[in-house]
Amino acid sequence: MSYSEEPLVVVPPSPEPRPVRESQSEYFEVCLPNDANLLGNMLGGHVMHLVDLCGAIAGIRHARCMVVTASVDQMTFLHPVRVGELVRLKSQVNRVFRTSMEVGVKVWVENLQSGAMRHTSSAYLTFVGLDKAGNKVILPQVVPETGEEKRRFEEAAERRAYRLVFKDKTRLAANQQDPRP
Ligand SMILES: CC(C)(COP(=O)(O)OP(=O)(O)OC[C@H]1O[C@@H](n2cnc3c(N)ncnc32)[C@H](O)[C@@H]1OP(=O)(O)O)[C@@H](O)C(=O)NCCC(=O)NCCS
To answer: How far does the centroid of ligand 1 lie from the alpha carbon of residue 175, in Å?
Structure first.
């Protein structure tokens, strides 16, 4: 579906704006051996999967339609998640553009025995709203209310500018490449 010659159709109209708080979401998972490497640490790809899920929940809560992940900004893993520990994720919509929105996700790891909690990752994802036919949807605007939400809202515009430059470069490179592996 991505990067096709034919752009997806955009469906108006956008409903009423909604506060950031209505999109705020949480997701929890215990790290099990199946999701860990040989050292007993959760696989980075699994953490990314959880980030995508928790981000999508916030995006869907805001948009009240299906969403697809258009991009994920760079991610850093500060601490390992050990088998038996709890991964806690929090997400919210930072800013809506037109058919896309930036969602921020924060990840903590909690040691259930000691209660110690460490912030291990943060990520910004861009989701695009789609209707049931797969057409892009103009999303309701999001209203930041707290000082923190307003700061994230402002900063999201700068991150978007950077992302769109990167997207254009990626599309250009994809169009120039021989599609065969
Ligand atoms: C993401 C997708 C819907 C974009 O569709 P498109 O018709 O090429 O989109 P456009 O260029 O019109 O972009 C639509 C919106 O997404 C934004 N966008 C697209 N690619 C982006 C990127 N890499 N980073 C940030 N924003 C992006 C555009 O800026 C635009 O936002 P706006 O309407 O708020 O201004 C399409 O490429 C797609 O379906 N990709 C696959 C998604 C998917 O399956 N994800 C799961 C992993 S494979």
So the answer is: 16
Whether residue 5 lies inside any domain: the answer is: no
Q: How much of the chain exceeds pLDDT 90, in percent?
A: 82
Tell me how many domains the chain contains. Answer: 1
Q: Which of 128, 139, 162, 169 to mutate to test the pocket of ligand 1 (most atoms within 8 A of CB)?
A: 128
* Ligand 1 mutation pick, 100, 103, 127, 135, max ligand atoms within 8 A of CB: 100
pLDDT tens digits, 78-111: 999 999 999 999 999 999 999 999 999 999 999 9
Please tell me what DSSP assigns to residue 8.
P
Nearest CA to ligand 1 atom 20: 70
> Which phi and psi (to 5°) does residue 58 adopt?
-65, -40
Residues in the chain: 181
| CATH number of the domain residue 95 falls in | 3.10.129.10
Indicate yes or no: pTM above 0.70: yes
Cβ contact 113:96 at 8 Å = no
Q: What are the helix (H) ranges across the chain? A: 44-63, 147-176
Contacts of 158 (CB under 8 A, 6+ apart): none
Which numbered atom of ligand 1 lies nearest the CA of 1? Answer: 39
Q: Report pLDDT digits (tens) over 131-155.
A: 999 999 999 999 999 999 999 999 9
